[in-house]
Every structure is written in structure tokens, then in C-alpha cells.
Amino acid sequence: MAVVVLLGPMGDGRANTRNAELQEAAAKYPEVQLKFVDSDKPREEVLEECQDAVALIPAGVRTFDTEFISKLDNLKLIQTFSAGTDWMDKAALAELGVQVSNNGGANAVAVAEHAVMLMLTIERKLDRQIESVKNGTWMAGVGGDRTEFHTLVGKRIGIVGLGRIGSRVAKRLQGWECEVVYYDTVDFDDEYTTAAGATFVELDELLETSDIVSLHVPLERTTRHMMSDREFASMKDSAILVNTCRGPVVDEAALKRALRDGEIFGAGLDVTEVEPIETDNDLPNLPNVVVTPHLATRALESEHNATANALANVARVARGEQPEWVVPPV
User: Fold this and answer.
1) Residue 101: beta bridge partners?
2) What is the set of active-site residues?
3) Which tens digit of pLDDT belongs to each residue from 122-180?
4) Which phi and psi (to 5°) does residue 140 adopt?
5) Helix, strand, coil shares of the chain as percentages rounded to 5?
6) What's this model's pTM, rounded to 2 decimal places?
């Protein structure tokens, strides 16, 4: 039986609920001994309690570093509940023989739905309609310029990153009668892209011709600020940017310039460069901009999927097998 440590704060009700669910899920894997370690304890105590771990599941904690991991001689895997792993130095961890796996698309459906919802919100000004009714002004000042209201039918949607989330966005847009194109550095097979209903184009063509550009890439060295002044200048002035991946993929200062200068029409964002967004950041108050608080993943189904995937993956390591959903150390 191999020790798997769940490392996180243990002092609240949500942690108790999470841990109970994990304990129940772990019962399916007799090769796994699940151990809960309180990350709020002194560092040396936490280190001592993690010594026997072959896998570590961080839960609501990002305070451990590579030096901490280097002292865990048995550790083979860090398994996250999240899709993002940008807060870890994966290259340094790889040198220690520790792999990092994400949640295997556990929240892909929720994020895909949220991305489509942001597209619709900007195209139909749903945020302003809802706010107007709540303010008791009904439709006053909302629907004046009808040229700014659009359906998705016939629109070209450009998806940057056709992975587990991007492909699900593409599949859902088939029902909206959209033309879906994509760009990715991964060479997907024909069966995968056909199922997604998406056609490959180069990134420059995608940006120049798409009515909506939706970002679904991991945050790493090659994707930081991949959307900046040059990219926004090449987009249609009627185009909308949707970002539900990671804030720093977009150069936020460049985005503000593009919106103010009319280089693009609007933006629907679930992520920002700094989170929580600074109180003096005027981005959410710009016309045709909607910002949600990085909760695209928030669905009960996502949590259940993440739990199931995490336990199945650490069980593979406990059995001496290779884990799935390993993130490259870039």
C-alpha cells in the first residue's frame, strides 16, 4: 500500500466535505493509503508527515516549493485538482524525478459552457439587460444601437487550443450553426478534429478572419502574452476576445488599448493578469467587456470529476504504473 498525501488547510467545513468525498473515492483503490496533512502546520511538521508519500495532491495550497519537494525521496507525482499547473516549476521537479499531472479535463465541460456563455453575453449584451431590469429601468439605454446585437449563426469562431476544453467548445458551437476554425501546436488526428467540427488554420489567419477568438491554452513560457498589440491589431474591429484559460496569456494593457481604440469590439474574460482583479483596474467597466471571477470551472460535476480522476491517477502510481495527464516540463 502506497501513501498518498492530500496537502491543504484542514480547518473548515468545505475541507471536511472534500476529504470525506476523497476518502470514499479512495476506498475503491486498496493500493492507496490516503493521508490528510494540514498545510497550516509548521513547515518542518508538514515535511515530516509527507515523508512517505509517493504522490501529493495539493488542495487549496500553493506554498510548497521545489526545495520542499526535493526532501521527499519517495515522491513520484504531484496530482492537481485543477487544469492549470503554471504555479509549479515543472522543469525543476522533472530533474527530481517528480511528474506533474493535471485533472484530466475534469472541468472541461463547465469551462466550455462558460466560454459560450461569455460569447452570448457580449453579442446580446445580457449583462446590461439584466442590470437594467434590476435597477428598475427596464430596457432604457440598453437596446438603442441594434447594430451591436448579434446571434452566433454564421459567425466564424476561432479556437486557440483544441485540447480537452477547446474541443468541447467547438462541439457545442456546432449546434449554434457556427463555422469553427482552430489553431494548435499539437497535430491532432483527423478523427479528433472531425468530431470537434473544427478546421485548422494558421494563427494569423484565425485572428484576421474570426468574429470571436476563444483562448484555451496552458500558461507557460511560450504562451505568456501571446495576445498583445500585434495580435489585436490584426483582428476585425467587430471581433470579440474570450479568455477562460489564464490571465497572463493576454497582455492586459494591450487589450485595454485595443478596446479603447476600437481595434476589437469586446471581451469576455473569466481570468485577469492579477487575481483578484485590482480595485482600480477599469477593465470591467469598459464598454462591451464582461469579467467573471475565475469561476468558469465552478460546477459540482467538475469537483466530482476532479476527485475521481485524481484518485485513479495516484492509484496508477501506487501500482507502479505511469500516470496519465502528465504536463510537459516547459
Assistant:
1) 79, 326
2) 246, 275, 294
3) 999 999 999 999 999 999 989 888 999 999 999 999 999 999 999 999 999 999 999 99
4) -60, 125
5) 40, 15, 45
6) 0.93
